[in-house]
């Protein structure tokens, strides 16, 4: 766990958010704290964001990675987010999803371009290392 | 409310002190280092408890008999001998027809408590045709009109069994249930049940699964609901004060209990400020808690909470009616404790949760399905969860003896220690000006967030072991059948949406518009009961979304209260 030195010298920047209707935010808050402790810059939003909001925030904040937390089936609209990011010219941003995602629906997300799906029990090191690697790639291809 | 010095106050059995000294000499070399152990609430646990840890002379003051002050041993004289706890399962997915079928099946399996859990889009204040179709009915049942509620309740004895509705402000589900009762010629004034998600403070602080309104507006909508239901449906519990949200979000068991009682104090003070008498509304306060796997701690949490509330209502509010101090609660086994890894292990975890809840004296319980960390529970796994309760009642006979752990040196000492922790939380919230102010300022959210992070760090450092996750990891086959995901069928959704549109076409539009206008106007008059207008709007044929939008126009949306 170290502060990733990315291209341009700025630390990795991650948007941690929730889309859809669910409000369970324990996971997203803990992950935001882990990433911040690891030296990344974290933009955190409360729950209930729309796809449009997330795209706008990603654009304004110039993030490298978007982390979507989902507990109660909101992962089902992540493909819509992927589509909207591409349309907005933000296809280089890496999107990860964490939470309750049934095995049989992981493909729905990865086929849509989601870079990684974290399941319950994922460790801090696994989360930090994966996201910092994805951030470096995203920054290089921006 | 305290208890005297716990050390050496009891005239222990002859020879006890000498024997204990000998035990200590033998004990020390057998354990490594200091071996300090604490429970989730931070209470240090001794390796052994005895007569020097609990003063049995305090029996009448601190325990009493079941059904008698301070109700530590249970709120009813007969407890599960008179009436076993109700297995009450949260059921919610798909269309009203799907719900009705699932509920009938579970009912045949021994469910006695009914529960309605609406779609997340409903919780957020929308009608199903206003939101993304992908999410409809994936988490909770689509209920937007009183017709939908009628389909849900087809053949379900909601007139004779108590029913709990997952109803957030402005409580349209309760209004729909009243309308269905009227349509069926049922005495709606005699309905028994609970507006299960009406505790808005717990949603602001922890769960955010509700129709958010600006805080002052939210407060009025709730108080109007309590007041109207108390007067019109007197056996209904218009409020269930929720600790489950806060504990699942990360609060320790003692914090969750303390914060919940602080919310109850807030709501009671709000009602008194309206000129209500404590004994008019307190008998209809009910509670809803989480049960973690920290077995004895949970039992002590419930026993201590019951005692604290029983004393509080008399000492703070001067309640005289014994029903005012009855700490009636539903509890749910902890989803956070369940693992995605080796999911069948969760059946063992849920059994431990359920035992703690039963030994803690709950009135009704939801047991989680073992696939909770994988997906929304399926029919097969929900059946196992109900069976777990039946096994504990029928085969393990956990309901035969009232408060069987009462008088255990450990459980009584721990109940006292939990009470101290709970009181410290209540005092901290009092110092903030009460729960409303403490939620508004973010004080509560910070407390919960810090505890959540501290617990996660213990898992990361392996100070807290989770079997199959950070220790005893086994990557081989789990033996669990992959869940058959229940996603609503596209044709059923189309049919549902067509029915919703037909409902809107069929009704008397002028009558609906008029009822909605009266609802909006009610908010400009401080003396009009706004919930009465919600009931009238639903009666006139308004949909859930229409009522929500009108309420929000009147009181405002407010800013999100998220503290990181």
Protein model, in words:
The complex is a heterodimer of chains A (142) and B (564). Chain A has 142 residues and is of the alpha/beta class. Chain A has one domain: 3-Layer(aba) Sandwich (Rossmann fold). Chain A has helices spanning 26-37, 51-61, 78-87, 106-111, 124-141; strands at 13-17, 41-44, 65-70, 94-99, 116-118. In chain A, strand 3, helix 3 (78-87) and strand 4 form a beta-alpha-beta unit. The two termini of chain A are 24 Å apart. Chain B has 564 residues and is α/β, with parallel strands linked by helices. Chain B folds into two domains: 65-460, Alpha-Beta Barrel (TIM Barrel); 490-555. Chain B is built from 22 helices and eleven strands. In chain B, helix 4 packs parallel to helix 6, helix 7 packs across helix 21 and helix 11 (253-273) packs across helix 16 (409-431). The two termini of chain B are 35 Å apart. Chain A binds chain B through residues 20-26, 29-30, 32-33, 44-48, 72-74, 76-77, 80, 100, 102-105, 119-121, 123-124, and chain B through 120-121, 123-124, 131-132, 134-135, 138-139, 203, 207-210, 248-250, 336, 339-341, 373-376, 449, 452-453, 456, 460, 466, 469-470, 482-483, 485, 560, 562, 564.
């Amino acid at each position: 766990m170290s502060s990733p030195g990315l291209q341009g010298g700025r630390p990795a920047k991650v948007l941690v958010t929730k889309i859809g209707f669910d409000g369970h935010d324990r996971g997203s808050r803990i992950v935001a704290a882990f990433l911040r402790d690891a030296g990344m810059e974290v933009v955190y939003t409360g729950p209930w964001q729309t796809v449009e909001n997330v795209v706008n925030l990603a654009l304004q904040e110039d993030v490298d990675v978007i982390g979507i937390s989902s507990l109660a089936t909101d992962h089902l609209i992540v493909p819509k987010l992927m589509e909207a990011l591409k349309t907005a010219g933000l296809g280089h941003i890496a999107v990860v999803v964490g939470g309750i995602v049934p095995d049989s629906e992981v493909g729905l997300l990865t086929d849509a371009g989601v870079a990684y799906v974290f399941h319950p029990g994922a460790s801090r090191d696994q989360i930090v290392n994966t996201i910092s690697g994805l951030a470096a790639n995203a920054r290089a291809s921006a | 409310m305290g208890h005297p010095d716990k050390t050496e106050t009891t005239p222990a059995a002859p020879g006890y002190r000498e024997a204990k000294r000998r035990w200590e000499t033998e004990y020390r070399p057998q354990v490594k280092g200091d071996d300090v152990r604490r429970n989730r609430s931070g209470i240090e646990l001794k390796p052994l408890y005895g007569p020097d840890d609990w003063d049995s002379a305090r029996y009448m003051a601190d325990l009493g008999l079941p059904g008698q002050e301070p109700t530590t041993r249970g709120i009813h004289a007969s407890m599960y001998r008179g009436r076993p706890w109700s297995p009450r399962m949260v059921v919610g997915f798909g269309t009203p027809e799907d719900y009705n079928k699932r509920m009938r099946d579970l009912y045949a399996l021994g469910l006695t408590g009914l529960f309605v859990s609406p779609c997340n889009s409903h919780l957020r204040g929308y009608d199903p045709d206003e939101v993304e179709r992908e999410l409809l009915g994936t988490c909770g049942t689509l209920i937007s009109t009183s017709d939908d509620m009628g389909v849900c309740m087809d053949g379900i004895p909601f007139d004779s069994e108590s029913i709990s509705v997952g109803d957030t402000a402005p409580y349209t589900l309760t209004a729909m249930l009243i309308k269905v009762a009227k349509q069926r010629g049922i005495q709606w004034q005699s309905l028994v049940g609970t507006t299960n998600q009406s505790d808005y403070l717990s949603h602001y602080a922890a769960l955010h699964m509700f129709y958010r309104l600006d805080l002052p507006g939210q407060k009025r909508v709730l108080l109007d609901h309590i007041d109207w239901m108390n007067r019109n449906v007197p056996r209904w519990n218009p409020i269930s004060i929720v600790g489950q949200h806060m504990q699942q979000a990360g609060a320790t068991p003692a914090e969750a209990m303390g914060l919940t009682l602080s919310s109850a104090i807030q709501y009671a003070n709000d009602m008194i400020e309206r000129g209500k008498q404590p004994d008019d509304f307190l008998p209809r306060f009910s509670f809803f808690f989480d049960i973690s796997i920290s077995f004895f701690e949970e039992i002590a949490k419930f026993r201590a909470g019951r005692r604290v509330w029983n004393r509080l209502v008399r000492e703070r509010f001067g309640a005289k009616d014994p029903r005012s101090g009855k700490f009636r609660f539903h509890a749910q086994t902890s989803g956070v404790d369940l693992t995605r890894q080796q999911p069948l292990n969760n059946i063992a975890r849920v059994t431990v949760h359920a035992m703690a809840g039963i030994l803690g004296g709950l009135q009704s319980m939801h047991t989680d399905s073992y696939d909770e960390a994988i997906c929304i529970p399926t029919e097969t796994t929900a059946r196992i969860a109900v069976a777990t309760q039946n096994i504990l009642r029928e085969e393990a006979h956990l309901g035969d003896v009232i408060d069987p752990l009462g008088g255990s040196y450990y459980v009584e000492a721990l109940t006292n220690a939990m009470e101290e922790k709970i009181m410290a939380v209540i005092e901290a919230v009092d110092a903030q000006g009460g729960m409303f102010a403490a939620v508004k300022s973010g004080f509560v959210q910070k407390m919960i967030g810090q505890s959540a992070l501290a617990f996660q760090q213990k898992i990361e450092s392996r100070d807290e072991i989770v079997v199959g996750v950070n220790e005893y990891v086994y990557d081989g086959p789990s033996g669990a059948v992959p869940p058959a995901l229940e996603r609503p069928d596209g044709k059923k959704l189309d049919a549902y949406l067509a029915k919703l549109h037909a409902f809107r076409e069929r009704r008397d539009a002028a009558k609906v518009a008029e009822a909605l206008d009266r609802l909006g106007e009610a908010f400009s008059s401080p003396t009009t009961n706004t919930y009465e207008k919600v009931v009238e709007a639903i009666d006139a044929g308004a949909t859930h979304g229409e009522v929500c939008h009108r309420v929000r126009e009147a009181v405002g949306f407010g800013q999100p209260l998220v503290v990181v």
